[in-house]
Write a structure and sequence with these properties.
The chain is of the alpha/beta class. The chain has eleven helices and twelve strands. Bound molecules: S-adenosyl-L-homocysteine. S-adenosyl-L-homocysteine binds next to strand 8 and strand 10.
């Protein structure tokens, strides 16, 4: 186990790379396809279950390569709405969260892209313990497959909105997106995938060039650079004007409308003037706005506005002719906000 980090992880390799690696290791190409189907169609992560592969080959692969596993260590099921929150452990015992939600349009899973986060957003629990490491593509896939296997439900939508900044783990994220939507693999529709970013501008341009039909969600949360810097350290690197140029380029290249996420914090970013400013930014960018009443995190003092204030903010925004939704509050009773379950378990483990 100690040296497994240095070994190539077979579950993180797209089919063409897996074929090259297996051929290099002395096996016929068709074996790669069989292995890939076990891992990505059947969601199997143990060689014992891969019944059509020769035993000697499995033993050889097991000694030369890694095959990452994602195991469940905690599960909470909301009594209010059936939302389920999973705490998964990786082979090195790193912990990440994933959330399963049922919607009218289908079943959605929200996955983590990193173990912890280094972006430092003031209202977010995921960043309280810093960044431990990036997740591999196979580990992100393992979250999706794990939720499907444990719930027995088919997932139709994947949102990369759990712990971590996906564009801070760019190469693994892009490999994950290709594999999740690969017709030889899990074959999820690209259009049902959303990636949420705090706004790492150069990576938004890179992602546009990949020309994937995914939805990009931008965590805006403020309408002036000054206010944004107060709550999001990333705003010290990129201005809102630069962000708007980047999302415009994303929209032009991919034809996909961007979503602006806006976490409403009482007394911080919920004024009528801010609704108007956000409305103008969204109108110019042809963006949809998703309002998220902030989920209070104990370590931070922020509160969400009351229901009436949230609705007033929405009405004001809609005057600008844009599409606005309010994120349904799901799983309030189960450490619903990003990173809360992991943070609590880390605290408990420290005694
Ligand atoms: N790093 C990505 C994914 C983060 S989580 C990003 O920044 O977009 C997905 C969304 O939830 C982001 O918009 C994030 O800012 C927001 N969020 C995090 N903690 C929150 C909280 N306590 N209440 C409301 N929204 C929160």
């Amino acid at each position: 186990m100690a040296d497994s980090a240095a070994k190539t992880d077979l579950r993180s390799l797209p089919l063409d790379r897996l074929q090259a690696v297996l051929v290099e290791a002395g096996y016929p190409k068709f074996r790669a396809k069989q292995l890939y189907q076990w891992m990505h169609v059947k969601g199997v992560d143990r060689y014992e279950e891969m019944t059509n592969l020769p035993k000697a080959m499995k033993e050889d692969l097991a000694s030369r390569f890694a095959l990452c596993k994602v195991r469940m260590v905690d599960r909470q099921i909301s009594k209010l709405d059936g939302t389920q929150k999973f705490l998964f452990a990786m082979d090195d015992d790193a912990l990440v969260e994933a959330v399963f939600m049922k919607y009218q349009f289908g079943n959605s899973v929200c996955i983590s892209s990193q173990v912890g986060c280094r972006m430092g957003c003031r209202f977010c629990a995921s960043t309280l313990d810093g960044l431990q490491r990036n997740l591999l593509a196979g580990e992100m896939l393992g979250e999706v497959y794990g939720v499907e296997k444990i719930t027995g439900e088919k997932i139709s939508h994947v949102v990369v909105m759990g712990t971590g900044e996906p564009l801070d783990n760019y190469d693994n994220l892009v490999a994950f997106l290709h594999m999740l939507t690969d017709e030889n693999g899990r074959n999820l529709s690209m259009r049902n995938v959303t990636v949420s970013t705090c706004g790492i501008v150069p990576r938004i341009y890179d992602l546009a060039k990949e020309n994937l039909s995914i939805t990009l969600a931008l965590s805006l949360h403020a309408t002036t650079d000054e206010k944004r810097r107060e709550i999001m350290p990333i705003a010290n690197h990129y201005t809102i004007a630069q962000l708007m140029e980047a999302v415009e380029a994303y929209f032009q290249t991919t034809g996909r409308r961007v979503t602006f996420e806006y976490s409403l914090i009482a007394g911080v970013n919920d004024s009528k003037e801010e609704a108007d400013a956000l409305g103008e930014l969204a109108r110019k960018a042809s963006a949809h706005v998703n309002l998220i009443p902030v989920n209070p995190v104990k370590e931070r003092g922020y509160q969400h506005p009351d229901r009436q204030a949230v609705e007033a903010f929405q009405v004001q925004l809609e005057k600008h002719g844009i599409n606005v939704s309010i994120r349904r509050v799901l799983g309030r009773d189960i450490d619903g906000a990003c990173g809360q379950l992991r943070h609590r378990v880390l605290r408990e483990n420290q005694g």
